[in-house]
Design brief:
single chain, mainly alpha, 10 helices, 72% helix, 0% strand
Length: 299
């Protein structure tokens, strides 16, 4: 239970700092959706220009759009994945017969925790995307849901499509969580283990370097599924709750590649990379520091 709470709290702290990058990443992923390059407007050219555009047209507070949903999503996700992985690590389940950390075992337990957390938190993930994509007409991209708050979004979706409507797209977000969490946790655990054995660096520095490596590995592996999940969650629906643009994961993949090329699957990569790198470092470092503090205080 302690690991679950520490994992969730660590992620909440990190999310406050990284949410603006999540906002611009979401909009870049939706910009030019199902349109060839040169056949759509591009209100967002890059990260800095995009953030300035958002602040200029929607106000500075818009840089934190979807923060409440993002905090809930990240708390649940990281509570599950860090809770599961740390329990496995401390129990020795992630080590091989030589006593060293196993990448495969680490990825397995990281993936289990990520799958569990992603599935439970799926409604918050969807609402976060819909809140973050909402903008004034001059810089609007993707389908505009016009939710005002997280609670109003929950109410609107539930009233229209019931409980199943809140979990629309969960089948794509679970593999996304499994790939992302498995690769991140494995990379962090393995890097940390090697650095502890091969260097004399202090624990905080080791956690920082391992977090950077983990964030890089995670972003490269999970970005295409992230683009697909963003588009599936953000699309509008008909009266039956069916997507207006895509019928599912495969349909979204095919239509995106056909209209935008494979580069469409990597839209918003840089803000995602910077966001995941910063978020991974903050989450994992804060998590390690909180665990150390807990041991020091013996609570």
């Amino acid at each position: 239970m302690d690991n679950i709470l520490l994992g969730g709290f660590s992620s909440s702290i990190a999310t406050i700092f990284t949410n603006p990058l999540e906002v611009i990443k979401t909009r870049l992923q939706l910009q030019g959706e199902l349109k060839a390059k040169g056949h759509h407007i591009e209100p967002y050219k890059n990260i800095l220009q995009g953030l300035i555009q958002i602040a200029k047209h929607d106000g500075m507070s818009a840089l934190q759009k979807g923060l409440s949903a993002s905090l809930c999503f990240q708390f649940i996700l990281n509570a599950c994945r860090l809770g599961v992985y740390t329990t496995a690590y401390e129990s020795g389940w992630t080590r091989n017969s030589n006593g060293n950390v196993s990448i495969i075992k680490s990825a397995l337990f990281g993936g289990i925790g990520g799958t569990l957390g992603q599935g439970i938190a799926s409604p918050f993930f969807m609402i976060r995307n819909q809140l973050q994509s909402a903008a004034v007409e001059q810089i609007a991209v993707g389908y505009q849901h016009k939710h005002q708050t997280m609670s109003s979004a929950f109410k609107k979706i539930y009233n229209a499509h019931g409980f199943s409507g809140l979990y629309r797209g969960v089948l794509v977000t679970i593999p996304r969580g499994m790939l992302g969490s498995g690769s991140q946790i494995a990379a962090f655990g393995y890097s940390k283990d090697v650095l502890q054995r091969k260097t004399n660096l202090n624990p905080t520095t080791i956690s920082f370097i391992s977090g950077c490596i983990a964030g890089t590995v995670m972003t490269i592996i999970m970005h295409p599924p992230d683009v697909i999940s963003t588009r599936l969650y953000n699309q509008g629906t008909n009266a039956k709750g069916q997507g207006l643009y895509y019928s599912g994961v495969i349909d979204c993949f095919i239509k995106t590649v056909k209209a935008e090329g494979f580069r469409g699957l990597y839209k918003g990569f840089l803000p995602h990379y910077y966001r995941m790198g910063l978020h991974s470092v903050l989450v994992l470092v804060v998590f390690d520091e909180l665990k150390a503090l807990k041991l020091k205080l013996n609570v």
